[in-house]
Every structure is written in structure tokens, then in C-alpha cells.
Amino acid sequence: MQGEYKSAENYFYQALNKDANPVPDYFALASLYIETNQLQKAKDILQKIPIDEGINRYVVYWNLYEIAKLEGKFEQALNYLEQYTEINDSLSIASNESKILEIENRYKHQKLMTENAELRLKQTGYLLAFAVCLIVVLAMLWNTSATASGQKRNSCCNKPTCAIHATACWNCPSRWSGKTPC
């Protein structure tokens, strides 16, 4: 079994030399050292990991907690566990806030879409009402024009017959039917 750990250690070091991002390999190697109770080597590897990113710090503190616990340094282990828990809480809060923000944005988008649809429906109603009113007005104008034209025709045809009247009365039906005007 010890040979397998030694082989795994060699593979991790080979990976560290090849990878552009060695952080996952450092974590794996530190875990291997913790598993084989080589705690000082695990601490040395963990110190090589940049902890400026929250997730790296999170995992480093957890591993340091495990090491301190195995060394019997319970006060130090508690300190690392508290830092780990604080980061874990911060990451959870940030994740939840991100989810809430995403849900709020979806709600706002849906609300705008609904308002847009309502405005389009309202606009369509206004256009329809305008079209109906326009048709009614045009129908009234046409009816008024036809009535006035009919009255003119009737008044034209009721005039006494004369040569001037026959040439002036274009609306007279008898003019076009070949009959004697009026």
C-alpha cells in the first residue's frame, strides 16, 4: 500500500511540472500527505496555494483544520474550522444573493413583457375604435352626399322642360335614357 502512495506522489509531482494551473494538484498532493500522516509535507504544500480566491482559502482552511486536529492542536483546529465556516457561509450567502438577483431579474423581465403585451393590446383596441369611427364618419358623409345628390336630381327633374335645362341637368335620368328631359 505504501508503494502505491509513493507512486501517486510521483505522479502528482509530474503533473505539477506540466499543468499551467497547479492548484488542483497541490490540493490532491496535500490530501495524499494528510492520508499518509505526513502532516508537515501537507502544510508545506498548502502554503504554496494562493489563497486570494475564496474557494482556495476555503479548501486550505479545511485541510489545515484536519492537520491541526490530527496533531492534537484543538484550539488551532477550532480556529481553522471557524475560518472555514466563515468562508463557507460567505460563499453560501453570495450564491444565494446571486440566485435572488437572477430571480428578481427574471421577474422584472417577465413584468416588462406583460406590460408590453398589455400596451400592444390597448393600442390595438384604440386603432380598432379609430377605424370603426372613421368608417362611421365616412358612411355618414357618403349617405349625406347621396341624399343631397338625390334631392338635387329630383329637383332637377321637376323643373320645366327647356333646352337649357336639358343640357344643364347632368343628373337627370331621363337625359340618359333617351326620353324627353323632365
Describe the protein's architecture and organization.
By secondary structure, the chain is mostly helical. It has a domain at 2-96: Serine Threonine Protein Phosphatase 5, Tetratricopeptide repeat (Alpha Horseshoe). The protein has helices spanning 2-18, 23-35, 39-47, 54-71, 74-157, 163-168, 173-177. The chain is rod-shaped and about 120 Å long. The termini are far apart.
**What is the tally of beta strands?**
0
What is the name of the CATH architecture of the domain at 2-96? Alpha Horseshoe
Q: Terminal Cα separation, in Å?
A: 129 Å
SSE sequence, one letter per element:
HHHHHHH
**What does the radius of gyration come to?**
47 Å
Mean pLDDT across all residues, rounded? 82
What share of residues is helical?
over 70%
Unreliable sequence segments: none
**Outline type:** rod-shaped
Characterize this entry briefly.
This protein is mainly α and 182 residues long. The protein has helices at 2-18, 23-35, 39-47, 54-71, 74-157, 163-168, 173-177. α2 runs antiparallel to α3 and α3 (39-47) packs antiparallel against α4.
Record keyword descriptors for this entry.
Serine Threonine Protein Phosphatase 5, Tetratricopeptide repeat; mainly alpha
Write the layout of secondary structure elements.
Blueprint: H1 2-18, H2 23-35, H3 39-47, H4 54-71, H5 74-157, H6 163-168, H7 173-177
